[in-house]
């Protein structure tokens, strides 16, 4: 699964999660960047690359959800 998570006139960040065959039950989580003003604007550079198990991937999702929900509550002045 891949998703562009930031897109501006100057750069892109793309996140990708892939299930790995080895080690069993593990996932690859990668964030790549592309700078559109570079000599090769199609070149991708790895910003983050980590291997996680399902618990680690779930923990990552949970902290993202918690932060986004906290921000939504702050903006709305109440419960999100």
3D architecture notes:
By secondary structure, this protein is of the alpha+beta class. It has one domain. The chain is built from one helix and four strands. Strands 1-2-3-4 form a four-stranded antiparallel sheet. A hairpin with a 3-residue loop joins β1 (2-7) and β2. The longest helix has 23 residues, at 54-76. The radius of gyration is 16 Å and the shape is flat. The mean pLDDT is 92.
- DSSP strand content: 35-45%
Count of DSSP helices?
Answer: 1
Number of beta strands:
4
Radius of gyration: 16 Å
- What is the end-to-end distance? 27 Å
SSE order, one letter for each helix or strand? EEEEH
Strand order of the largest sheet: 1-2-3-4
Structural class: alpha+beta
Largest sheet: 4 strands, antiparallel
Q: What overall geometry do the principal axes of the alpha carbons give?
A: flat
Low-confidence stretches: none
Total of domains: 1
Share of helical residues:
25-40%
Mean pLDDT across residues? 92
């Amino acid at each position: 699964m891949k998703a562009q998570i930031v897109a501006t006139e100057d750069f892109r960040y793309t996140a990708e999660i892939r299930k790995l065959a080895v080690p069993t039950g593990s996932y690859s989580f990668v964030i790549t960047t592309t700078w559109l003003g570079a000599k090769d604007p199609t070149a991708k550079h790895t910003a983050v690359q980590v291997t996680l198990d399902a618990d680690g991937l779930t923990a990552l999702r949970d902290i993202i959800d918690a932060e986004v929900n906290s921000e939504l509550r702050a903006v709305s002045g109440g419960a999100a």
